[in-house]
Amino acid sequence: MSKYDSLWEYVQEKDEASFKLTFEEIQNIAGIPIDHSFLKYKKELVEYGYEVGKISMKEQTVLFNKINEQTSN
Question: pTM, whole model, 2 decimals?
């Protein structure tokens, strides 16, 4: 169990191609402030069908992108 599980579940439920969340929104969803460990934990998001795009320190936002799954026939 990850300290960011609630955030990953929220992201998965959004089901959008891409969207931004502010650091404050992430803290409200996850129940903890975003910190350097986020860089390590962000790899877990792939299991939920998303990846972390740009992290803007200036805007204090994180961009989340849905992973396009290619199906082969």
Answer: 0.87
